[in-house]
Amino acid sequence: MQMNRNKIFALNEEIRKKDYVLATYYIELDKDIDVMAKASAMAIGQTVGTWIPVPGITEEMQEHHMGKVVSIIDIPPYELSTQIDVEKCSYLIQIAYPYINFGAQFPMMITTLLGNDASTSAQVKLMDLQFPESFASQFNGPNFGLEGVRKLTGVYDRPLVLNMIKPCTGFSPKVGAKIFYETALGGVDLIKDDELLGNPNFCKAVDRVKEYNEAAKAALEKTGKKTVYVVNITDSVDKILDNAKRVVDAGAQAVMINFAAVGYDMLHNLAKNINVPILGHYAGAGMFYEGVLNGMSSPLAIGKLPRLAGADIVMMNTPYGGYPLKYQKYIQTTNELSLPYYNIKPSMPAVGGGVHPGIAERYIKDLGTDIILAPGGSIQGHPKGAAAGARAMLQAIDAVMQDVPLDEAAKEHSELKIALDLWGYKK
């Protein structure tokens, strides 16, 4: 089937006026492969056609349902064929997809963006997505967002502190409640389940909510500080909404779900059916973004998509905890979560993995104060106990907020000094 240029190609300025999702891909090709033909095959193959011409494609289909090639950018920016002295060439390809094809839902959108590349013989990585407001606003995003999370905790003037119960699993609700109580005495704002603890028979989520809320109440009476429990409801998809209803009826004020395991659409469905803040966890999401020639970029996987899906808090990785995430990707992910984006509330970034008092200053310098610091072992593993570990983290944050060097603050706070001696100080 012969395609004229007006049907298969479009300029960026014209596409932005219409109902298209604009996807940017990275691709590597042998230098003798026609990148325009490859991009065109993707635009057609992931919308109305396949890898060879097929009968039945009408003018109306082409006009309203076919993808369009918007841009092809050479990397490096070669202009002359004589400049190419490599066997493989790299490109950024922008393809516009009419969103009438899939609507405001994740399964068919992701299938369109990435699911058909094998049949079009294209190994690509999805680097960026640009949505028109008419499309993005249909997802609603977080119900509570950053301000709602702050209202829930009652803390407005500093980063929040979140801890997770350790050991990760293998204990009863009553044992977990004792750990919760000892940690809450230190003044943390939120305590969540570890992502490895869901709803096993030996430690049911509803039972944890009841026991942990009693522990939170006891700690509040002793310290005057509220600590919110975030219960993990991740499960088989047919059980998640029921889990959510049960834990909320039992008194849960916030829930956690691993969107990497259950999918963005399950997170989206949960946000449409629950009236407490949702913490979206990224455990296992490396399979989405670690490939160079497949998957998607981490700012999409951990940033834009869970925000659209409705996560009020999103756990994310950083370059500082042993995982080799690029600094640029860490900043871009935070931007996708929290910068102004149409009418969609910002999600609150929660940074985890190797978080300790000595790194608090680095995170606040990088990301500002509208973040959640999520130390695990540095609280539960503090030599003087979990309460002392929590106090050390809060002492570090307070010092940074007052522009006092941590080593100076440590002279006044033994808990902080012990933490700095153990885990160091990263300015």
List keywords for this structure.
ribulose-bisphosphate carboxylase activity; RuBisCO; alpha/beta; Alpha-Beta Plaits; eight-stranded parallel β-barrel; TIM Barrel; 427 residues; 12 strands; Ribulose bisphosphate carboxylase-like protein; RuBisCO_lsu_N_sf; RuBisCO_lsu_C_sf; globular; four-stranded antiparallel sheet
Brief rundown of the structure:
By secondary structure, the protein is an alpha/beta fold.
Structure explained in plain terms:
- This protein is an alpha/beta fold and 427 residues long.
- The chain has two domains: 135 residues, RuBisCO large subunit, N-terminal domain (Alpha-Beta Plaits, 2-Layer Sandwich), CATH 3.30.70.150; 279 residues, TIM Barrel (Alpha-Beta Barrel).
- The chain has 20 helices and twelve strands.
- The chain has an eight-stranded parallel beta barrel with strand order 5-6-7-8-9-10-11-12, surrounded by seven helices.
- β11, α16 and β12 form a beta-alpha-beta unit.
- The longest helix has 19 residues.
- The model has no long low-confidence stretch (mean pLDDT 94).
- One of its GO terms (molecular function) is ribulose-bisphosphate carboxylase activity.
- This is Ribulose bisphosphate carboxylase-like protein.
- Belongs to the RuBisCO large chain family.
Largest sheet: 8 strands, parallel, barrel
**What is the helix fraction of residues, given as a range?**
40-55%
Low-confidence stretches: none
The CATH class name of the largest domain reads: Alpha Beta
Order of neighbouring strands in the sheet with most strands: 5-6-7-8-9-10-11-12
- The secondary structure category is alpha/beta
The total tally of domains equals 2
Distance between the termini: 61 Å
Number of helices: 20
β-strand amount: 15-25%
CATH homologous superfamily descriptor of the largest domain:
Ribulose bisphosphate carboxylase, large subunit, C-terminal domain
Kindly state the number of beta strands.
Answer: 12
Oligomer: single chain
Q: Predict the CATH topology of the largest domain.
A: TIM Barrel
Give average pLDDT, whole number. Answer: 94
So what's the overall shape?
globular
